[in-house]
## 1
Amino acid sequence: MNLSEFDYELPKSFIAQKPLQKRDHSKLMVLNRDKRSISHHQFFELPELLDSNSVLVFNQSKVIPARLSFKLGNGKGEILLIKALSEKTWECMVRPGPKFKAGNEIEIDPQLSLSIKSITTHGLRVIEFNVDDLNAYLKQNGQTPLPPYVKEKIEDSNRYQTIYAKTEGSVAAPTAGFHFTEDVFKNLKEKGIETAFVTLHVGLGTFQPVKTEKIEEHQMHSEYYELSEETAKQLNTAKKAGKKIIAVGTTSVRVLETAANEDGKLVAGSGETDIFIRPGYRWKFIDGLITNFHVPKSTLLMLVSALAGKEFILEAYETAKENNYRFFSFGDSMFIQ
C-alpha cells in the first residue's frame, strides 16, 4: 500500500494544545464495525457503552522527564532520551547533530558528562551518561517531552500522564488513557468490567514518521514490553470465556498482538517488539480498541485502519472534523467496537 493512502487534511485549529479541565469530559466517537455506524458521546459514558462481558487492557508505562536542554558552545544543545540500553546508556535524539559525533565527550555541568558511543542507522546517538544517578538527575533537570505539535506549555506535567501510570520508561505518553478518571474506573467496576495492565515503554517505534512510499518497506524501531504471568493468565481465561478484549491505546494493542501465539493464546514475557500492524494484518487477540485521533501518514493511523478498515477510519476522521473533535495527544477519543 502507498503512504499517500493514509493522508488526510487537518487544519492546525483541530490540534488540541491543552488537556481539558476534566479528563473524562472529552468527546467519544463510537465506531460500530458490524453496522458501519458512527455515534457521538462523552467519555464518561464509556461504562454504559461497553458490554459487561468486556475486559479493558491498559498500558501502565510512565513518562520520564527525558528531554535535556543545555548550553553547548555558543548555542544550545538538546537531548531526548529514547530507549534504555543499560542503566546509563541510551539511544537518543540530539540537536544540533554535528556536535554529537561518535567519539565526542561533552560536559553538560559538574554533575553530568556524555560519551557519544556510536550513531545508529536511524540517526540516533548511543550516549553513555557519566553521572552518579541518571534517574535522579533527570528528575531534577529534565523536562517532560511533549509532542512537537503541542506548542503551548502545560502547567501540570501530570496531565501528560495517565492516572494509573506506574512503570517508568516512556518518552511519550500512551495518550488513549488520558480520558480515564477514578469515577470512570469506579463505574467500570460497578458494571463488572474487568481491567488488566501491561507495559510498553513508548519510544521511537510509536511516533517515528514513515519515510517510504511503500508502507511495507517501513521498519519499526523496537520498544520494550512486559506481560506478566498473572495478566496473561487473566486475559487467556477471559478470552476463553468469550469475553471481549478491548485494548486501551495502540501500545496495549502492540503488547497483546506481540505476545499472542498463532493459536490466539497469550504467552507471558518481556522483550523488544517491532510489530508493524497495517491493513491486511491477521488479528490474534484483541476485539476492540479505545484510541485517540492520529497524525496523517502515521503507523498509528495504519494500525486503526487495519482494525476498522481504511475507508471507514478516514470517513470517521472527516465526521470528527465536521463535529469539531479535538485531535492528537490532548484530543478526543474513539472507541472501535
## 2
Amino acid sequence: MAARLHRFLRLLLVLMLAGGLYACALFQARDPLNISVIGIEPLPGQELEMRMAVKMRVQNPNESAIDYNGIALNLEVNGQPLAAGVSDQQGHIGRYDEAVIVVPVSITAFAFLRQAYGLGKLDSLQGMPYKLRGKLAGGPLGTVRFTDEGKLDLPKAGSQYW
C-alpha cells in the first residue's frame, strides 16, 4: 500500500512539473506592440458629441500571432481625457506582421469644452501632445494592452467638425 502511494505521489509530482513547464511556455514574455496613430478622421456625430475614426497601425514584433475580438481606446490630450471608443471587430495580426485598425471614438461636448477652457481657445488642439491607451481583447490570457504618444494631427480647417 505504501509503495503504491509513493508511486502515485511521484507520478503526481512529475505531472505537476510538466504542467508547470507548459504554463511557463504559455506565459512567455512578449515584446510590446508598436502602435502608431496614422490618422484621425471626422465621423457624423449626434447632438452634443463629436465622433472621429482613429486609424492605428499595429505592428506585432513577436514570434506568435495575435488574434483579437474587441478593441477599447482612451485618448488623452494635454494630460486630460478627451475621447473614448470601443469596437467589437475581430482580426488577426500574424507574427512579425502589421495591420491598420480603425476605431470610432466619441468626444463629448463637456470633454471638448474642458480642453478648450484649459487651452484658452477652441482651435488650438492641433499639435497638442496626446496619449492613446487601449487593448486588443483576446480572452483571459490573450488580451494585449498598448499605449502610444505623440502630437495631434487633426483634420484640416475646412472640416465641419473642427
## 3
Amino acid sequence: MDETTLDMDKSPTRKLAVYREEKFRVPSAAERTLELWVDRIGEGVSTGPLDRLRILGQQGHIIILNGHGVYVSERYGAHKVEAGDCMVQFPDDPCAYYPHGSWTTRWITWNGPEAARLHELGYLARSVPVFRDTGLAISRTYNQLRPIMERGDPAAALRRKALVLQMVTALHDTQQHLTGESAGQPHMEEALTLIHEQFNQDLPIPGLAREVGLSATHFRRRFRAYTGRSPVEYIRDLRMAEAQRLLREGVPIKQVAATVGYEDPFYFMRVFRAVIGTPPGAFARRHSRTEIADP
C-alpha cells in the first residue's frame, strides 16, 4: 500500500485496553532445534469494531482477501487498509485490525529464536507494518502450509520453516521495492486496486491499461516489474485463491467457477488443476473447512 495513503493519527490507541495473547502451540523437539516454527494459520470472515489492542507474542502476517478497514498499532498509529494489503503483527507491539463492515483475511503466525535474528538483520522491517503484498506471498505460503500443518515429523517441520523463510524473503523484497524508487508508481497501485476489486470480471489488459493511462505494452512491462508476474498471471492467481476458499466452504464447483469469473466450469477445472496441482473436486474433499479464530 502506498505510504501516502496512510492515516497516521495515533489517537485511536489512547482509548483502548491492551491484552497479551496467552494461547500458543507447543513446538515439537524438531521445531525447537530448528529454532523457527509455525504456530498456526487460518482464514476467516470477521466483522465488528475495534475494542482493544493485543500483544501477539510472536510474528504474524495477515493478508486482506476482500474488504477494507483499519490497522491500528500503539507504536505506528492507524493505517487505512484494503484488499491486497499485508498487515504485520510484531511480537511486542500492541496492535489490532478491523474491517469497515466485514472482510476476509488469511494469516500466518510463527515464532522461535530465529525470528529475532531476522529482525536484527532487517528482514522484518518495523518501519513498514502495512504494505501491498504484490507477489501474493502470504496466500501462496498459506496454501503450501495447509496440507502439512498437522504433521509432526521432522521433515514437515523443516518444510514449514523453509516456507516461512521463503515468505519472509519475498515480503522483504516487496517492502524494499515499494519503499524504493518504485514507491511513487500510482499507475500500478491504481491497477492493483482495480484488479482486486474486479478480478472475477472480464478485465482485458488493453482496457485495464487505458484505465491507468498507459499503453498495453508499457502497462504489461511495468506491471511485471512491480509485481513479479504478468497481469494475466496475477488475476488468475487471485481467482484461484478465492476458488480454494469457496471450495473449502463446500460451494459447488459450477458455482465457484462462476463466482471467480469463469463462464465455462470445465475450463475453470482445467485451470485449477494446472495451477493448484489437483482437480477442484479432489481439493474440496481433501480440504474441508475448519473454523479458526483470528490470530
## 4
Amino acid sequence: MGGALDTKPYFCNYRNMPTTSSKKSNEQVAKYADMFSAMGTEPRLRIMQLLLSAHPQGMVVGDIQAELEIPNSTLSHHLDKLKNEGLVQVRRESTFLHYTANTEALQELLQFLYAECCTRNQAVKPQDVVQICK
C-alpha cells in the first residue's frame, strides 16, 4: 500500500499544477523585471551605486549631478524612473530634493535572485556571492 503512494508524482514540485500563489508570483516577477529594467542603463546604475555609497544619508540632486556629470534634465528623468520603480526614495528639505537608495526594495530584489540561484538549485554557491561583494 505504501508503495503505490510512493509512485505518484508530486505535481507541485514540478510546477505544473496551478496554485493560488501563481498570480502573485507572476506579479512579483513582473515587478522585479521592471526594477531591473529601471537599473538597466549605465547612468541609472551609477546613480544607484552613488546613492548606496552615501547610505543612509543619501544625496541632494546637485551633488549627484556634480559627482556623475549628468545634465540636470537627464538626471531628473533617471531619478524619476528609479523612484517610480521604488528603487529610490525622495524627500524635500527646504528647496532641495534629497534622494536615498530604497534598501528594502533592493533587499527584496536580491532575495528573489538569491532564492533562485543559491538555494533552490545551488547554481551559485552562497559563499561565492559573499566573496563577490567584498
